[in-house]
Structures are given as C-alpha cells and as structure tokens.
Predict the 3D structure of the following.
Amino acid sequence: MKSFELKQKLHHYIDTAQEKKLKAIYVMVEEEIETYNHWEDAAFVKEMNRRVKDFETGKTKGYTWDEVKKRAAKLINTKAHK
C-alpha cells in the first residue's frame, strides 16, 4: 500500500475512532509529536533559508496556489489512468 493510501486510511480511522482507541494511538506517537520542533532543527532551518534565498534571487520559480492545484490534479489523473 502506498503512503498516500495509508494516510487516507489512517485519517478516516482517526476521524471515526472511539476515544479509547484515539488515546492509545496518541500514546504510541506522543513523544514524536510533542518533542520535534522543526525550527530547532539546524539542518531544517538551513534548508528553508536556502530555499527562500533561491526563490528571492530567482534561482527557483515559485507557483501560485492555482498552479499547484492544477499540477496536482494533472498528476493524480495521470496516475489514476495507469
């Protein structure tokens, strides 16, 4: 099963799960959820700064939200027909 499908199934399960099961799931991932702060990760911050600089200097092209949605829809339709 692909990552996208796993996420969909998990989202659906979490949206409909009983409170007892939600608490059990949360206990399994609590440490990861509550301890990781992207902005305290030097490698992450460095990468984000590089990307901003690339965008600001024109090295990397940005996309509008409409362009992103169109590209995503095109990719989804392409994969659905394979």
